[in-house]
């Protein structure tokens, strides 16, 4: 059986220790579209040599940013073909601004396994500290494994964030380069679903798709730029559910509502009748 929840739930994954530099931060920011306004001083804060500001979404890639091989979905009680897996949701909470360089340690456990019938959802929770044990960020993420449900587990909760019934306070369009996925994969996610047309076709897509975490980072950056004056230190937390595929060469329509210490965000693809890209997007202010 590919999934055994009795083994998986509560299982701890190997501890990760890693180091990053300001060049890694710059590469990540370029991977999510930073630098499109090269004469804008606020835009260049993401790419400053030595001490760039760091978006909290950098936390989602930093542990594996130097990886050069495709990931494997192989955990205690979980063994799944990579072609069946897409990202389900992602949440990051930073306990202080992420430094432009440093070393850290991440501990991760599988917290939940849900049986959605035709699919399974595996939820991981992680805590990251510096090497002295001071907290840096915590994260929660889920993966959606098509065709892996039906093992008799609980279906799990279904939650959604209602958007205000009024015009957004901010709205912006985010262009996606045709080579965006090829650039973003340099941040450590070498899943061929995002680069190999034949692999993407075998997985049921007409072309390689953009990494969900690339969309996640691009939308966060857009919100920081238009609603927070490009100041990444004002972000305490950021979460989203991956609601649909995005293809390189498209664009994102990002609408933002201010809501009592947080931003509620909608991200859609206008090129395809505003089909959803991210849903239940909440940015919590520091």
Automatic annotation (TrEMBL):
MaoC-like domain mapped to chain residues: 162-259
Any Gene Ontology biological process: fatty acid beta-oxidation
Domain Peroxisomal multifunctional enzyme type 2-like N-terminal: 18-147
InterPro entries found in the cross-reference section: HotDog_dom_sf, MaoC-like_dom, MFE-2_N
Pfam families per record: MaoC_dehydratas, MFE-2_hydrat-2_N
Gene3D superfamilies from the UniProt entry: Hotdog Thioesterase
Domain of life from the UniProt record: Bacteria
Gene Ontology terms for molecular function: (3S)-3-hydroxyacyl-CoA dehydrogenase (NAD+) activity; 17-beta-hydroxysteroid dehydrogenase (NAD+) activity; enoyl-CoA hydratase activity
Family listed: Belongs to the enoyl-CoA hydratase/isomerase family.
The name this protein goes by in its record: Acyl dehydratase
Originating species: Rhodococcus tukisamuensis
């Amino acid at each position: 059986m590919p999934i055994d929840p009795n083994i998986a739930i509560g299982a701890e994954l190997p501890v990760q220790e890693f180091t990053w530099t300001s060049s890694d931060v710059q590469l990540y920011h370029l991977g999510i579209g930073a630098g499109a306004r090269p004469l804008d001083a606020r835009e260049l804060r993401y790419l400053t040599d030595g001490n760039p500001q760091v978006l909290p979404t950098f936390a989602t890639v930093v542990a594996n940013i130097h990886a050069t091989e495709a990931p494997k979905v192989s955990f205690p009680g979980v063994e799944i073909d990579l072609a069946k897996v897409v990202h389900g949701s992602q949440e990051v909470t930073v306990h202080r601004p992420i430094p432009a360089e440093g070393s850290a340690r991440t501990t991760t456990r599988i917290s939940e396994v849900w049986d959605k019938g035709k699919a399974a959802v595996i939820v991981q929770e992680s805590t990251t500290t510096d090497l002295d044990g001071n907290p840096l960020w915590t994260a929660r993420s889920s993966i959606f494994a098509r065709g892996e449900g039906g093992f008799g587990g609980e279906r799990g909760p279904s939650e959604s964030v209602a958007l205000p019934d009024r015009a957004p306070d901010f709205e912006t369009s985010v262009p996606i380069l045709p080579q965006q996925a090829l650039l973003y994969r340099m941040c450590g996610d070498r899943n061929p679903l995002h680069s190999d047309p034949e692999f993407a076709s075998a997985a049921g897509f007409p072309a390689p798709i953009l990494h969900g975490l690339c969309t996640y980072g691009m939308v966060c950056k857009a919100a920081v730029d238009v609603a927070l004056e490009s100041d990444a230190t004002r972000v305490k937390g950021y979460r989203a559910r991956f609601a649909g595929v995005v293809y390189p060469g498209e664009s994102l329509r990002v609408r933002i509502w201010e809501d009592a210490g947080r931003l509620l965000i909608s991200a859609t693809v206008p090129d395809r009748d505003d089909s959803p890209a991210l849903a239940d997007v909440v940015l919590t202010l520091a």
